Amino acid sequence: MATTLSAPTVADSKEKISDPMDTVIPSKEYKWWLNNIDHLITPQRRKVFENYSNIPPEDVRQHIYDIKAWAIRQYPCTGLGRFLNNLFAQSPAYNDIVVRLKNGDSFIDIGCFLGQDLRQLVWDLDGAPTTNLHGTDIVNHWDLGYELFKDKDRFKVDYFEDDMMQPGEKLMALQGTMDVILINQIFHQWGIENQIEGATQLVKLSRDRPGSLILGYQCGVPEQREVVGPKGSKYRPLLHSRKLGRNCGMELGKEQERNGRRNQSCLLGSNSDMIPRKRYGWEESLDGIIISPKIPSFDSSNQKLGQQNRTAF
């Protein structure tokens, strides 16, 4: 039976939990902590640290292991080395986004973490102005990003700490101005009420014009279910199935219409693909999937990697 999403009422709405990992007890006993992530330090990733960050080849591995993001939040993307995967650059929309940004469109990365996706964009913009690029997160990993990539003197993107669910002054000022919104690995942290509220905030942030785009990768499972959060957490996130992912995309579309907006594209859940998480370093969770946005109107020859004709960051 298909799940119908509905906006919460005041009576049944739970307290907003924008940052469900803030009370998790630090530990390396969680199954999403891997002591060894050597398999993710691929030749392509090595080139980034050797050629972009100017780290001697013999020091690359230890440099990656020394980054202290786990002490800030015990995110799976940290413990599993997911920040070494470049899923955004593999989106079928990626090449088109680069062209749009070169032509002056605005872009924001919600939950930008270490800033790895923004660095990929700056690399591919190849000298084009970056004044329209923004990154925000509810907790600051930005300084660690400078430490990881050793580029504080040359990586210039507007970053600010903010909460998309309860936006502060900076996010409020950007409402209605974003042409492209990237939100990776965020929605699967929340229950359904907060997922709907998050979708509402994205609509407010996006520009009301044809071509406005919201996209992102979210984790899920073959059959939707709530899961118990890690010890010390205060949430029961709803993990998406392909069907529920599409329903979420439809719900966001309805939210756009409720706000009088009919010209935006949402690739959060509609037209989703399933990508085995094992392919991206989630070996301990064989049934896990990533809900991956795909765009049928794009040339199918570019849909696998979205990066055939460019140099990888």
Automatic annotation (TrEMBL):
Listed InterPro entries: Meroterpenoid_MTases (IPR051654), SAM-dependent_MTases_sf (IPR029063)
Alphabetical list of SUPFAM superfamilies matching this protein: S-adenosyl-L-methionine-dependent methyltransferases
Domain of life: Eukaryota
Range of residues in the leader sequence: none
Name the UniProt record assigns to this protein: Methyltransferase domain-containing protein
